[in-house]
């Protein structure tokens, strides 16, 4: 609410008096009543402008003094107060309502509101005593209503949630101020005082210039979360506050500014909370470094500025060991210590970020590759020397780093530079860790790593959009015993359908999935789709079908794999465990024989089948067969192809088939690429054959 406008436009005359009863301000109605402009009245005493008679002045003087002494409002309901200046012979009758305006517990000013009642009261002199008459009673009711309205106006003004004050004239003299304004500025006696005298600290902050500009031009000023420093405690330090602020000019009858209405809110807490939220959104909560999103935003701006800059991508070596052995509290402490070390090695223009997990980045402005490599090596050396004791043990920490350039001069975007540095960091780990590798667009090894890394995002997207397509390659029965089973066996093969509809073979994405830890997610996705395809088969066909599904060693050994298989089976009630055979490579199986045997045994116990893939590549294969509960051996394709180069190839294949028969295990010959191998394999006793010479993969269901 614009309380200045309420004061100015109120039809009831009002005048603001100092403790010495000089006029500080008045409203338009008071000016009209005395037919004098405000400027002519400022500084004059009330009785100079409003003389009355000696008796009437005495009564009014007593009322005003009571307000000063008792610090409470006082009302004169009806007073004969002749006005000689009016040059009239008849008397004038007035009511006066005098209200104290408090400041620091003392009366700082008095709001005097005279009301001419002459038109309502037609009585002889001295008749003000006869208020028991009906006319007097009506008058008292009217005065009571006016008093209530005055009190309501005062309460609204003082209790307004925002701060309000009124400044008069070009010197900005305080005329009015509410409680919120006093709470903002703290200790002060301001009414009737020049702003520059009582708030000198705001001058150098530019607020006086803003007020002068508003007064001079008549144009308002509006500011949001404007910082201001105030001495809110006497002789105390300056305190920073943030305020929403409006300076609105007050125009006189001629339309020229005569003062300024100040309105605003103290938004310090909300502003600081907003700043904190903004900081948290842009920084890592643990280390306080910038996060990936914020550094990308800042680097986009840096790219526009030109120049060539360097990016150092840092990844702690074997961080997972500390996390697993010592717990996450130790891991968090190590990350904070590394962040602090990076700050110690950073220069003024460097940008530091935690990209996630144990990965950090340093952006070195206007720095070439040679300089960046030296800086990266210094950081790696410092991390290697970082002592990290935890619960009586001392751990050694090392770091791998990748370095790349970006910027307009390097003709590389930040995003591409980050990819180059990430790939170079991965190469540093592959080459033995604790070293620095420089990544450049022309580096073939780095480019290959980048392609693999790109596949992780593409693979996730393909799974999310259900663009993993299942093909099947059927096995041919080569022996009469196998035919008696009547089963249609085929290996499930995954392809990706690209965004343009092209089919992408597994060799393009499987290595990347294994290298970057996505193989478990991909295996589970394929298992789910294979079970769903089996569910959709006609019951008679499903009963005679068995899908061979590849499972990596990482997937098999992951926590909850068997539970996942069983829960997926429960979602497709028409699928029987016998419809599924899980293929595990021999090398994965023997790498952790006891664990693998236990997991495979649990699957077989539930009714699933198990095949040992690439059999023969593990060198000591025969010795392990007695420990693994498998129903099929898939003879490694290199041995099958070797049959065409006798005698060694044929002897090895025959030996595998004989050993498998001894364990009652059926054999599948892989990579049957030539039809002339079929009779040889049949004579050797192989149960099944698989390869392009027998069946080319086609989309499931077959």
From TrEMBL:
Span of domain PAC: 224-279
UniProt cross-references to SMART domains, sorted A to Z: EAL (SM00052), GGDEF (SM00267), PAS (SM00091)
Pfam families in the cross-refs: EAL (PF00563), GGDEF (PF00990), PAS_4 (PF08448)
Domain PAS, first and last residues per copy: 1-71
Domain EAL: residue ranges: 452-702
Annotated signal peptide: none
SUPFAM superfamilies: EAL domain-like, Nucleotide cyclase, PYP-like sensor domain (PAS domain)
Alphabetical list of CDD domains matching this protein: EAL, GGDEF, PAS
InterPro entries (alphabetical): Biofilm_reg_signaling (IPR052155), EAL_dom (IPR001633), EAL_sf (IPR035919), GGDEF_dom (IPR000160), Nucleotide_cyclase (IPR029787), PAS (IPR000014), PAS-assoc_C (IPR000700), PAS-like_dom_sf (IPR035965)
Keywords: Kinase, Transferase
Entry keyword rRNA processing: no
PROSITE patterns, alphabetized: EAL (PS50883), GGDEF (PS50887), PAC (PS50113), PAS (PS50112)
Cofactor(s) in the UniProt record: Mg(2+)
GO MF annotation terms: kinase activity
Domain GGDEF: 307-441
Subcellular location: Cell inner membrane
One Gene Ontology cellular component annotation held by this UniProt entry: plasma membrane
Name the record gives this protein: Diguanylate cyclase/phosphodiesterase
Species of provenance: Pseudomonas saudimassiliensis
């Amino acid at each position: 609410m614009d309380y200045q406008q309420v004061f100015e436009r109120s039809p009831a005359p009002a005048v603001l008096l100092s403790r010495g009863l000089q006029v500080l301000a008045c409203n338009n109605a008071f000016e009209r009543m005395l037919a004098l402009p405000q400027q002519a009245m400022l500084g004059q005493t009330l009785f100079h402008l409003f003389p009355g008679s000696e008796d009437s002045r005495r009564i009014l003087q007593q009322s005003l003094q009571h307000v000063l002494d008792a610090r409470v409002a006082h009302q004169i309901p009806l007073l004969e107060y002749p006005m000689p200046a009016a040059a009239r012979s008849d008397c004038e009758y007035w009511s006066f309502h005098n209200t104290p305006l408090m400041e620091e517990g003392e009366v700082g000013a008095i709001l005097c509101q005279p009301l001419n009642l002459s038109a309502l009261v037609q009585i002889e002199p001295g008749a003000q005593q006869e208020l028991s008459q009906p006319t007097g009673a009506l008058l008292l009711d009217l005065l009571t209503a006016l008093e209530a309205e005055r009190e309501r106006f005062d309460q609204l003004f003082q209790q307004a949630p925002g701060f309000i004050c009124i400044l008069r004239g070009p010197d900005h003299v305080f005329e009015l101020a509410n409680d919120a304004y006093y709470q903002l500025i703290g200790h002060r006696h301001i009414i009737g005082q020049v702003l520059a005298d009582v708030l000198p600290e705001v001058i150098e902050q530019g607020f006086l210039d803003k007020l002068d500009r508003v007064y001079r031009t008549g144009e308002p000023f509006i500011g949001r979360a404007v910082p201001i420093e105030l001495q809110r405690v006497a002789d105390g330090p300056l305190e920073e506050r943030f305020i929403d602020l409006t300076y609105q000019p007050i125009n006189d009858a001629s339309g020229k500014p005569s003062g300024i209405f100040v309105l605003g809110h103290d938004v310090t807490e909300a502003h600081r909370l907003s700043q904190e939220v903004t900081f948290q959104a842009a920084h890592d909560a643990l280390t306080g470094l910038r996060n990936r999103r914020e550094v990308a935003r800042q680097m986009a701006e840096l790219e526009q500025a030109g120049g060539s800059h360097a990016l150092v991508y840092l990844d702690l070596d074997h961080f997972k060991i500390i996390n697993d052995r010592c717990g996450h509290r130790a891991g968090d402490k190590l990350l904070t210590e590394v962040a602090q070390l990076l700050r110690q090695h950073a220069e003024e223009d460097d940008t530091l970020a935690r990209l996630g997990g144990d990965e950090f980045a340093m952006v070195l402005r206007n720095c070439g590759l040679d300089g960046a490599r030296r800086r990266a090596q210094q950081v790696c050396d410092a991390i290697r020397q970082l002592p990290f004791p935890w619960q009586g043990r001392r751990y050694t920490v090392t770091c791998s780093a990748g370095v790349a350039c970006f910027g307009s001069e390097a003709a590389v975007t930040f995003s591409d530079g980050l990819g180059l540095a990430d790939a170079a960091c991965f190469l540093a780990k592959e080459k033995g860790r604790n070293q620095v590798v420089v990544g450049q667009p022309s580096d073939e090894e780095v480019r290959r790593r980048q392609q693999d890394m790109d596949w992780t995002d593409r693979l996730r997207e393909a799974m999310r959009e259900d663009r993993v397509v299942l093909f099947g390659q059927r096995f041919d029965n080569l022996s009469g015993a196998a035919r008696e089973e009547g089963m249609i066996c085929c290996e499930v093969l995954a392809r990706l359908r690209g965004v343009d509809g092209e089919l992408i073979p597994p060799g393009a994405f499987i290595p990347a999935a294994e290298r970057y830890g996505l193989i478990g997610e991909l295996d589970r996705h394929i298992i789910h789709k294979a079970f769903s395809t089996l569910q959709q088969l006609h019951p008679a066909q499903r009963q005679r079908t068995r899908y061979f599904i590849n499972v990596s060693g990482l997937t098999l050994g992951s926590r909850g794999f068997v539970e996942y298989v069983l829960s997926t089976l429960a979602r497709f009630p028409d699928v029987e465990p016998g419809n599924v055979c899980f293929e595990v490579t021999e090398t994965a199986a023997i790498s952790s024989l006891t664990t693998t045997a236990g997991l495979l045994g649990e699957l077989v116990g539930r009714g699933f089948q198990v095949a040992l893939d690439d059999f023969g590549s593990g060198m000591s294969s025969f010795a392990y067969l007695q420990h693994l509960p498998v129903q099929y051996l898939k003879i490694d394709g290199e041995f099958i192809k070797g049959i065409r180069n006798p005698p060694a190839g044929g002897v090895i294949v025959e030996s595998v088939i004989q050993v498998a028969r001894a364990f009652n295990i059926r054999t599948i010959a892989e990579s049957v690429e030539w039809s002339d191998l079929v009779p040889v394999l049949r004579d050797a006793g192989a149960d099944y054959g698989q390869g392009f010479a027998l069946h080319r993969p086609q989309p499931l269901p077959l």
